[in-house]
Every structure is written in C-alpha cells, then in structure tokens.
C-alpha cells in the first residue's frame, strides 16, 4: 500500500515539474519577444566614429637650422673636431630638443641686428628675442589650440614687441626700418582710438553714418548751386579784366 502511495506521489511531482518547466520556457520566450518589441530597449549598433581631420602643418622657423650644427655649449670647444662621429652626432642639433634649437635661433636673429658682439640688451636685440619666442608659440598653438597658458604668454610677448618697436620708431627710425626688414616683421600702426566694440556702440555708429550720408545727399544740390555761382562770378571778373583797357604811363 505504501509503495503505491509513493509511486503516486512521485508521478504527481514529475508532472508538476514538467508543468513548471514548460511555464518557464513560455515566460522566457514571451520576455524575449517583449524586449524586441519594446520601443525603449533597442539592440546596440556600431555607429561610425567621427573622423578627426589632421591639421595642416605649417613650415617651422627652425627648419633652416642644419642638423649637423653643434649645440650651443659645444660649438666653441676646440677638441670637438677630434671626437668620434657618434659623439658628434649626439652633440649636434639632430639629437637636440626644441628648447636648444630655439636658443640657437634667438642668437642667430640677434646677430643680424646687434650693434656689437657684446650687445645683449639693446632694443633691436630684445625685439629679435621676442620674435623667436612669438614664432615658436605660434607653431605650438597651431597644433594645440586649447593651450590658454601659452596663448597668454604669446599675447604678452606681442604687446611687448609692439611697445619696443613703437619706441624704436620714434627715436631711431633707421634702426627700426632695418630691424623690421631683417627680421621680416610687418609693423602695423596702432589705432588712434581703441575701445571695446559693443553691440550698442556698433548700432549707434551705423546709425550716425547713415544719417551723415542722408544729410550729404540733401546738401548736394545746394553745394552744386553754390559752386556754379562761384564759377559764374569768377568768369565775370575775368571778362571785366579783359574788357577794361590797360592804363599806361603818360609820354
């Protein structure tokens, strides 16, 4: 009797398990279908990545430095001619950093404008040093546009060079002209009146120019009439002079 009961219980349990397994598979299938049909849950797609455009490289002002040229500390050493080629290459500009190249470039620009070999603080030498610094920072900012620290340093150097060139132009014009020509500097005259252009100021300036042009159009006929009257009076005086006889001295 007990064996019959156990067999009945085991059969009922197996049937229940089969029912639960079928129910689980149906629920999983329904969940998969709802995921595909849901507007909020979508399958991941491989979107195209944005292509970064390579910035066009500008010619550097350090390109004219020969790579076989020695670094500044080793240029005037007499024993340098006896060293090995490998050592000489290590001491040349081929293995030098940009900082060392800029130092040599500064000296080259200063040698072109300095008065004497011992001149290191004249206005034209300072302008040469600032020119090398400005050109180096311009090349750096062309590739790294978000470097605000170096941008500020470049603007400070530009303002400093403008001030020196202005003073040099007012005191020694021949030296100023030579410095600008040798260093390839285009000097622009500062504006007579400099102020921040606001929207209100721009609109007011445009209105003033428009009113001035309209007034000139209204005055144009009157000015033309005055000019014609002046020409008529001038011609009348010339005609009177030609018609009147010249008075001569009595004989």
TrEMBL record:
Signal peptide coordinates: 1-16
Biased composition range(s): Basic and acidic residues: 226-241
Coiled-coil ranges (or none): none
Pfam families per record: Ribosomal_S15
Keywords, in A-Z order: Mitochondrion, Ribonucleoprotein, Ribosomal protein, Signal, Transit peptide
A Gene Ontology term for the protein's cellular component: mitochondrial small ribosomal subunit
UniProt-listed SMART domains: Ribosomal_S15
Keyword presence, Chloroplast: no
Chain intervals for the UniProt region annotation (Disordered): 222-251
Compartments reported by the entry: Mitochondrion
InterPro entries reported for this sequence: Ribosomal_uS15 (IPR000589), Ribosomal_uS15_bac-type (IPR005290), uS15_NS1_RNA-bd_sf (IPR009068), uS15_ribosomal (IPR052137)
GO terms (BP aspect): mitochondrial translation
GO molecular function, one term: structural constituent of ribosome
Family in the record: Belongs to the universal ribosomal protein uS15 family.
Protein name according to UniProt: Small ribosomal subunit protein uS15m
Originating species: Podarcis muralis
